[in-house]
């Protein structure tokens, strides 16, 4: 599935909910489903700067595809990062670096997140794209 196909799928899922209380509940459910990271990967190097809650992100290249793993102390943040992983993980660094993540605006996330969460979400996207660029440069 392409990055855009996954984004479209998420947009369709969010369209099923009538109000933001239900959408937040869905994000929280996604957070509860995030596998998380082993304690040894919750290092200072893996912390995303700019997030209100602590968020750890790890990336590794497998068969030319970038695989992301993440964890957070806050369940709603875990849900947000889970969506980003779903969209971006298992794609090439080039695809990730060039991705236009339109689903964030289309599901209304930009308007409904508190400013600090919105800044944190932007920091997560930036870090994932930075990993992609770094792996492109290594190739």
Q: What is the CATH T-level topology?
A: Sufe protein. Chain: A
| Multimer state | single chain
CATH class: Alpha Beta
Shape: globular
Mean of residue pLDDT values: 94
Poorly predicted ranges: none
Question: What is the strand content?
Answer: 5-15%
**Residues in helices, as a percent range:** 55-70%
Written description of the protein model:
- It is built from 7 helices and 2 strands, in the order ααββααααα.
- By secondary structure, the chain is mainly alpha-helical.
- The chain has a single domain (3-138), classed as Alpha-Beta Complex (Sufe protein. Chain: A).
- It has a two-stranded antiparallel sheet with strand order 1-2.
- A hairpin with a 2-residue loop joins β1 and β2.
- α1 packs across α3, α2 crosses α3 and α3 (75-88) packs parallel to α7 (115-138).
- The mean pLDDT is 94.
